[in-house]
Design goal:
InterPro entries: Bact_exopeptidase_dim_dom, Pept_M20_glutamate_carboxypep, Peptidase_M20, Peptidase_M20_dimer, Peptidase_M20A. Helix content is about 35%, strand content about 25%. The protein is α/β, with parallel strands linked by helices. The mean pLDDT is about 95.
């Protein structure tokens, strides 16, 4: 049997083992701010990889889940003039759900559909990467070193994971990010960038009936700023602004001494980021209600994933590999953000959403198509084996 036949046959035999690993991971708490929980899923990844003879290292993180790195040695790159060597399989272990969610909604399978917190986004992709690494460790054949990078804080913008990801990207020949495959079965070739900011406003408290004139309303100021920020939305350019959270005030009969709101900015072109953020800064600096003060803090950020000639070549190889695995795959654009933007920005050809197919992420209805597990793993393995066809 050829190496490709051996690897794909072995992956086909591992469906039950994949689901067992997935069940354990989904049933482990792993919200982004739950470092012990995310580290438990990291321990599971290390245990699996090491049981298959794969060397691992732990990159400790102070506040969020540690990053786990698994290495499978492979052949040397034959790409012309490419000094980058590593083929990177990437994914995040954290979820958006509160502590205790797995107890409330444990992993289950009904009619070929798996459910549970993080089942698609993106614990299935983590498990898939684990098994693909194990397959190449068992049978060889990779045209270069394989690196599995398993991070722990993507859902909040990778505040600690980003430097680790960017360091990996600098030596990456290609990156496959195993976010969930789209409900259509497609992968993602392009994503928006995003900036997540907080605005804090100070006013002055006063009795709203007996001493109204002495008050300065932070909530009134927030209302003016929010209207101005929302007006920056430009759908033709792919720019959207959304104030999704707001809190403030002291009581209904008190002029609000404080207010805070949070902004979600999405954009396509890197230059648009600086333009819009500049205009937001101007809005925040302006006092619509005299006497108020405001400050803007960026809490998290993702870079856009934009296609390049190199990433297009990777997609075509992956598309053919998927076809040989029985899948029809196209490339999609999405307004969602991911760590893939960080690797692409540093010149690593990147393909995203190559994980098993699922949908309704971040909700109680999140699901995974169980029968997509094996063919998506086979597609990735075939694409890796055929990487020389990209010329990278």
């Amino acid at each position: 049997m050829s190496t490709e036949a051996q690897i794909t046959a072995w992956l086909a035999s591992q469906k039950d083992a994949m689901l067992a690993e997935l069940a354990e991971m989904v049933n482990t708490d792993g919200g982004s701010y739950d470092k012990p929980g995310v580290d438990r899923t990291g321990a599971q990844v290390k245990r699996f990889l090491e049981s298959h003879g794969i060397a691992t290292e732990t990159l400790p993180q102070q506040k969020h889940g540690d990053c786990i790195r698994g290495i499978v040695e492979g052949g040397h790159s034959l790409g012309t003039g490419n000094q980058r060597s590593n083929i990177v399989l990437m994914g995040h272990r954290d979820t958006v759900f509160p502590k205790g969610e797995p107890e409330r909604r444990p992993f289950r399978i009904e009619n070929g559909i798996a459910y549970g917190p993080g089942v698609a986004d993106m614990k299935a992709g983590i498990v898939m990467n684990m098994f693909v690494l194990a397959a190449f460790r068992k049978f060889g054949g990779a045209p270069g070193p394989l690196v599995g990078l398993f991070t722990g804080d993507e859902e909040i913008g990778s505040p600690e994971g980003r430097p680790v990801i960017e360091a990996e990207a600098k030596n990456a020949r290609v990156v496959f990010n195993s976010e969930p495959g789209r409900a259509s079965g497609n992968v993602v070739k392009a994503r928006k960038g995003g900036v997540f900011s907080v605005v804090d406003i100070e006013g002055k408290a006063a009795h709203s009936g007996g001493n109204f004139e002495a008050g300065i309303s932070a909530i009134g100021e927030a209302a003016h700023k929010i209207v101005a920020i929302h007006a920056l939305t430009d759908l033709k350019r792919g720019i959207t602004l959304n104030v999704g959270l707001i809190q403030g005030g002291q009581s209904v009969n008190t002029t609000a001494p404080n207010c805070q709101f949070q902004i979600d900015l999405r954009y396509v072109e890197p230059a648009d980021r600086d333009e819009i953020m500049g205009r937001i800064h101007d809005i925040v600096a302006r006092a619509y209600v005299p006497g108020t003060k405001a400050a803007l803090t960026v809490k998290g950020e993702f870079l856009p994933l934009n296609p390049t000639p190199a990433s297009d070549r990777v997609f075509k190889v992956y598309q053919a590999a998927a076809a040989d695995s029985g899948l029809k795959v196209e490339g999609e654009f999405t307004g969602g953000c991911a760590d893939s933007g960080f690797t692409a920005a540093l010149g690593a050809p990147t393909l995203c959403a190559v994980g098993p197919v699922g949908g309704k992420a971040h909700s109680p209805e999140e699901y995974l198509e169980v029968e997509s597990f094996v063919p998506r793993a086979q597609a990735m393995a075939r694409a890796i084996l055929r990487l020389e066809q990209t010329g990278l």
